[in-house]
Design goal:
With about 130 residues, the protein is mostly helical. The protein has two domains: about 5-80, 434 Repressor (Amino-terminal Domain); about 95-128. Helices cover about 65% and strands about 0% of the residues. The protein contains seven helices and no strands. It has helices at about 10-20, 25-30, 35-40, 50-60, 60-65, 70-80, 95-125. The longest helix is centred in the C-terminal third of the chain and has 32 residues, at about 95-125. About 10% of the residues are buried.
Length: about 130
């Protein structure tokens, strides 16, 4: 049995999922059924020509798929996003309560304008 790190079908599946592509879409691009794509993704080894076609559709080289590793993806993500914007210690540059009050005041002003427009409309209807 092949090691999971060498399982080309699983790598194709992971890359496809990371690209946000469904099996049905890949199948359509390849001109095969979704079941055939599922079978490919369950295969430890994939024919070179098929791998080339799949790689092209996924926007990669077949070598990129062969060398794909989830660990590398996580390392890239970890090394790319250091701005701490997702940190739990994130400080707002505004007071959220003030924003809520502002939105409430805008809503009240809008409702007052709508009410005034309705009153004017009713007056026009009555005057006819």
């Amino acid at each position: 049995m092949a090691e999971p790190t060498l399982h080309i079908g699983r790598k194709i599946s992971k890359v496809r999922e990371l690209k946000g592509m469904k099996q049905e879409t890949l199948a359509s691009e390849l001109g095969i059924s979704q079941q055939a794509v599922s079978k490919i993704e369950q295969s430890a080894d994939v024919d070179g020509e098929a791998l080339e076609k799949i790689a092209k559709i996924l926007g990669l080289s077949s070598e990129a798929i062969k060398n794909f590793s989830e660990e590398a993806v996580f390392n890239i993500i970890g090394n790319t996003y250091h701005d701490n914007s997702a940190s739990l210690n994130y400080q707002c540059s505004f007071n959220p309560i003030d924003k809520i009050v502002d939105l409430y005041n805008e809503k009240v002003a809008l409702l007052e304008r709508l009410l005034q427009a309705e009153k004017e409309k009713n007056e026009l209807i009555k005057s006819k």
